[in-house]
Amino acid sequence: MFSAGIDLVEIGRIRRSMKNPRFCKRVLGRSESAQLALRGFPVQSVAASFCAKEAFSKAVGTGFSGFGPKDVELIRRPSGRPSLLLSGGALRLAGGARFSVSVSHTEQYACAVVMGENGAPALPETDGLQILRSMLKPRPSESNKGDYGRLLCICGSEGMAGAAVMSAGAALRCGAGIVEVALPRSIYPIVAVRLPEAVFTLTDAGPDGTLPEAGFTALKAALSRASACLIGCGLGKSAAAHRAVSLVLKESKVPVVLDADGINIAAEHIDGLNTARGPLILTPHPGEMARLLKTTPADVQAHRELYARGFAAEHGVILVLKGAGTLVASPDGKLYKNTTGNPGMARGGSGDVLAGMVAAFAAQGFDPYQAACGAVYLHGAAGDRCAARLSQSAMLPTDLIAALPELFLEIGR
Questions:
Q1: I want to staple 161 with a disulfide (CB 3.0 to 4.6 A). Which of 117, 137, 190, 312 is the partner?
Q2: What pLDDT digit, counting tens, does each position of 133-165 carry?
Q3: In this structure, are residues 113 and 102 in contact, taking their beta carbons and an 8 Å threshold?
Q4: DSSP bridge pairs for 201
Q5: Overall number of domains in the chain
């Protein structure tokens, strides 16, 4: 337990410093400053924030070294409880530990006590969390599976059964009422044993790799039942995969999440995006984005915001450009930049998990832009939780799915 206090003399110095408009911008974080602004920046509350920052510096044993004052924010949760929001150098120094804080102040004195606790870091209070809370409401007592959407996942191929498992598994964990997985019969036993909650439509490619009429008819029927569709995770680029993507883009009136090979196939006939009948959400990594734009991944990374906004507007889609600081762009110009996540998520399968999460929210009827923003935030938060417990080196994409239940509990859903 570590404490810090400020007396009347120090409070007077803070009051004088606050006359400089750059002072608060230099020492207060965005969320912290926004909450204080609602109360007119009372000097005693600003002093309490300073105390919390100093007490944290003592708790990690570094003093004000390795992090800036804006990296430690004293905020109030919706319940009114004070909490520390860590970012940047402070988050790295925390090393996955959670820190509780108590504050008190009078007209003449302010103090804060910070205590380090072993356990998971608190969820960052960002725009992404606000979007997620606005989407996820308590479920009515009189509910049934039909109230929470039916998601069709056209995912997986021989050698890529895991992509179907992870995408559909993430969708199930994100609340979709029914998840139907359409995949080849050859990988059905592998996927079914991992996903007993899913239902399945089997689509067998012919000897020449094409989709026979029976499989096409089955896919079309499954699509007609769906409230959203995810296509592309581990799909491959066979003739059957091309026909499936074409079917979905031409026939679906419900939201479609296009990922991985679904994006690669669409990139060959980019105009097909403009004639899609339903809302489209694309989730490319920089390499897939480069194929869509006919450029290089390095060029994409150099112009992330410009290209995300431009592509979303030109093709009328929600564009989720993955990477450090994942971007979500809408056709009407909205742009969300995510702040959760870490390099431990940079491995095969993480994108399949995200695609399933986005699709699950879309299937439940949430606005496509909000579904994407909420899923991106939650996906990154799960990654941060896994890194704190398992390390960035050892965490796996399936660990992200396993972390989702506790995150929903913390959000209150």
A1: 190
A2: 999 888 888 899 999 999 999 999 999 999 999
A3: yes
A4: 182
A5: 2
